[in-house]
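ugh ok fine here u go
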Amino acid sequence: MVKQIKILLQQFPKKHLLAILVGAITLTSLSFLSNTKLQERETSTELSSSLRMEELIELDKTERPRIKRIISTTAKRNDSLYSILRKLEVEDQNILKIINSKNSKLLTKIQVGNKFEIGLSDKNIIIDLKYIRDFKSGVKATLQGDSYTIYPYELPIEKVNVYKSVIIDDSMYVSGLKANIPESVIMDLVYINGWDIDFTHDIRPGDSYSLIYEELLVEGEKRVDGDILIAEFITQGKKYTSIRYDLNKNKSEYFSLNGDNVKKAFLRSPVKFSYISSRYNLRRKHPILHTIRSHNGVDYAANRGSPVRATGEGTIFFAGVKNGCGNEIKIKHSEDYSTRYCHLEKFSSRIKKGRKIKQGQTIGYVGSSGLATGPHLHYEFHVNGKHTDPLRVEFPNAKPINSRDKKEYTDHANEMLSSLRNYQSLTNTLAAK
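structure:
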């Protein structure tokens, strides 16, 4: 093949061979130069693209500076968004930028006591602002370019069931605190069982209670204690079981296992965590007058200033000073029932004749006005105008579970009771090991 090419080349004139050689070199050079320029163009494009990206990054840094510090503050009376931000020495121009941003009206209704969390740059520019309405919701404002994006937020809530079991060795309240039950849950338990149990009179060492209640978690952190789902209270051999049931979207009540409403028309005691210093006695000797006089009620000894609550819903038909009773309140609950509260230190605000009162509402405070040897509440319960022993009277019940909901409630009650029994069995097993 090489020999044939050599013979072929010998047949061409020398000047033609020179032209062919020059042409080949030229084509090769052009091809090389073209590739080089293409590579340079691609390199230039890459550099240009890289520079533009760096410029965009730098621009983004300019539009949204870094947060250097976060300040928390609480809204006070007469505060506005403007006054709060001015106290933090934010410039008017920055405040106006938030006010003029879309949806800024969400930040105009500020409630006293609610909190703000504000992220500021090193130049005191607001980067992020959070108005916290409650533990799960509020309004956020975030710097985006030359304005703020403002929107409401609501965090998802996770509910976790918590089981507690307590054997009372001193008081129901103190024993519950020792078992790490939150105070709010203990008070809910007192309220739920307050129609059947007088916690100042009925409780004995060795009584016990078990309950399952909810904890509400936001982003994995406990934020608040929720409702009691089921509670079982055993006192003096009697067992009281209360189960929470949703009657509708906005209303829940507690019922016994067979569907009776645990709520009664009257609370068993008008003063929480006091003790009975004198019982209903028609032949009691008066401690001051030293004569035999009927004691037509029950005396609850408590610290001066302890809240006194209305044991039932009704209307005040007397509030004033009356003979040995001192500061006195009378409440008419129906044609059949009325109650009387004596020796009060003072009345609660807005208490006056004719005012409607809710069950459990504070109406006054324990004192020693009138003929009293010390601070206590004298409490009377009248049926058809006659004195009745408040510790023995049978109170009328609230409405039981509706017949159309009976099957659904029974299934729910059995499920909750089974859950409580499982917790109790597991606790007993662990305690035995």
